[in-house]
Design a protein that fits this description.
The structure holds 2 protein chains of 2 kinds.
Chain A: E1 2-12, E2 18-29, E3 35-38, H1 45-52, E4 60-65, E5 73-74, H2 85-95, H3 100-114, H4 129-140, E6 147-151, H5 159-175, E7 177-181, H6 185-191, E8 194-199, E9 202-206, H7 209-229, H8 234-261
Parallel strand pairs in A: 3-7, 3-8, 5-6, 6-7
Antiparallel strand pairs in A: 1-2, 1-4, 8-9
Chain B: H1 10-30, H2 39-59, H3 68-90, H4 108-135, H5 145-172, H6 175-183, H7 187-190, H8 202-208, H9 212-224, H10 236-261
Helix pairs in contact in B: 1-4, 2-3, 3-4, 3-5, 3-9, 4-5, 5-6, 5-9, 5-10
The chains are: A alpha/beta, B mainly alpha.
Chain lengths: 278, 263
């Protein structure tokens, strides 16, 4: 269980103001439970994960847990760009005090999972974001964590990686928990039972993920409505909506074309963009 | 087969992190060179060679009892231990940002690793140089090893404490980084690296003696060469500097440790 007790987190803005990411939030995140974290951009999803993972401290309040928690796995998965993939993995094994045999085992497993080939001995800064995500995830599944913090991990990477990742999520869920940040709601539906919805410095926990998603979507609609009712220069606004519409049409066509061309492949995580709210 | 991460004692955990970070420093610092770690010794030798070639003709053999090359080397190594620690700490956070996501790696650790790196490389280079000097027939005394170690440690503490304090300040006010880099340049001339402090007229020397590095550098020479004597230096004054610098650095870290993990 992770206990979040009266946590407040803010960042200083230019001009001395403070941007509150979380305001006096208290929660308990149960174990053996997978949670999808929902919220608009900048709501503090990644920051929450970083705080749970211990990479960053709250300004006030405390996050306590007796469970073992992974580092936040995602695009900036905790690798030093100037070191190679192998050296980075050795670093993680070293700081956790693994024996030589265990380290060798981890390296073998990661090589097999990531299929990076010669890139495994190249500096991580030469990796694509997908390769980085693979390396981070491939490393973390070798450890027995009670909680895995996943930050937009599957939004990069090719179909093979997603397929592998989905299988691993299923395995992890048997004995551990996922705390999952993703903008693709279908991915969340598939891997999570509950939801945590962050907005305006507040966090709400929903036992049922569908309820969380519904609340999130209602919030998005409300926001849309608000911005439509705002008295702005009408002509400019009208122009903008027309422009947006054409863009939407184009991208919709684009997706449709992609879908048909890839229909022969079995995609493990169907990417229906209609559900993706970014 | 998933591996359960074992709990280590705080001390063991700290040692593991510093070891891993040290290894990372050695890889990135020397991994790209063919000569590798040899550069620890070649670097200062080259610097001393250049300075010696520039100043040698003017100096003659007036450095007294110590061969000038070795006289210069002693001063230069201690100075670079201090300035090197300051320079290394300026980039400590930025070049380890990726590794700070691990809970075990606290923002102080990259600093500590770099300070230890400086201490290890500079003192091992100094030991090697002393052995070479003995081999060339320069008479060194081993009777004052305690003073030698104290000189090295005090210089290191001054550099590390100042480095920690200044680099945290430089993360808040970016301009400071430039000012610090330029500010360290005259240190070579005011720290008795190139000349013995006794060669300076007393009217000016009294100001130079406010610089703690003058005391540690001259004391190191005195400890290595019993016939070399300087009257006005002592180790209490730099010790006070070392304690104050270290305390200030640690205080600043304690107050700003949350700021350092923010991206």
């Amino acid at each position: 269980m992770i206990k979040i007790d009266h946590v407040t987190k803010y960042y200083p803005l230019k001009g001395g103001k403070l941007h509150y990411v979380l305001k006096d939030v208290s929660l308990e995140i149960p174990s053996n439970h997978s949670i999808g974290v929902l919220g608009p951009n900048g709501a503090g999803k990644s920051t929450l994960l970083r705080m749970i993972g211990g990479a960053e401290a709250p300004n006030s309040g405390s996050i306590t847990s007796t469970s073992s928690i992974s580092w936040p796995l995602g695009l900036s998965a905790g690798f030093q760009g100037s070191l190679s993939g192998r050296q980075n993995i050795l670093f993680v094994c070293q700081i956790n005090g693994l024996s030589k045999a265990e380290t060798r085992h981890v390296i073998e497993q990661v090589i097999e999972f990531t299929q990076l080939g010669p890139y495994f001995d190249m500096p991580v800064k030469t990796y694509s974001s997908g390769m980085r995500a693979k390396l981070g995830f491939g490393l973390s599944i070798n450890f027995d964590f009670d909680y895995y913090l996943i930050d937009e991990l599957t939004s990069v990477g090719d179909a093979t990686f997603r397929e592998k990742a989905t299988l691993e999520f299923e395995r992890i869920k048997q004995s551990s928990s996922l705390i999952f940040v993703a903008h693709n709601l279908n991915v969340l539906r598939k891997s999570c039972n509950s939801a945590l919805f962050l907005r305006n410095g507040d966090a709400t926990y929903y036992e049922d993920i569908e309820k969380g998603i519904a609340a999130y979507q209602a919030y998005i609609q409300e926001k849309k409505g608000e911005s439509a009712h705002k008295p702005v220069a009408k002509k400019a606004a009208a122009k903008k909506t027309i422009a947006e519409k054409t863009v939407v049409k184009k991208s919709a066509l684009h997706i449709a074309a992609k879908k048909t061309s890839h229909s022969s492949h079995i995609t493990p995580l169907p990417l229906s963009k209609n559900d993706t709210i970014t | 087969m998933a591996i359960k991460i074992q709990h280590h004692s705080p001390w063991r955990s700290q040692v593991l992190v510093i070891q891993a970070l040290l290894q990372r420093e050695f890889i990135t610092r020397f991994g790209k060179y063919k000569l590798g770690v040899i550069w620890v010794f070649v670097d200062p030798l080259l610097s001393v060679l250049v300075i010696g070639l520039l100043l040698g003709p003017f100096r003659g053999s007036s450095s007294g009892e110590i061969p000038y090359a070795f006289f210069l080397l002693c001063g230069f190594m201690l100075l670079s231990l201090c300035t090197g620690s300051i320079t290394a700490s300026l980039g400590a956070i930025a070049s380890n940002q990726g590794l700070l996501v691990f809970k075990k790696v606290q923002p102080l650790d990259p600093f500590l690793a770099r300070f230890v790196f400086q201490l290890v490389t500079v003192s091992s280079a100094l030991v090697i140089f002393c052995l070479i000097a003995v081999w060339f027939g320069i008479e060194l005394s081993a009777g004052h090893l305690f003073e030698v170690v104290t000189c090295i440690l005090l210089t290191w503490m001054i550099g590390s404490g100042a480095g920690l304090y200044l680099s945290i300040a430089a993360l808040k006010v970016k301009e400071l980084e430039k000012i610090i880099t330029y500010g360290m340049r005259p240190l070579m001339f005011i720290s008795a690296v190139l000349y013995p402090i006794d060669a300076i007229p007393p009217a000016y020397a009294q100001y130079l003696l406010y610089n703690p590095l003058v005391h540690t550098i001259e004391s190191l020479r005195m400890a290595l060469f019993p016939i070399y004597t300087v009257d006005r230096v002592n180790l209490y004054y730099p010790a006070a500097w070392a304690i104050i610098a270290f305390a200030l650095g640690m205080m600043s870290y304690r107050n700003n440790r949350h700021f350092l993990t923010q991206r």
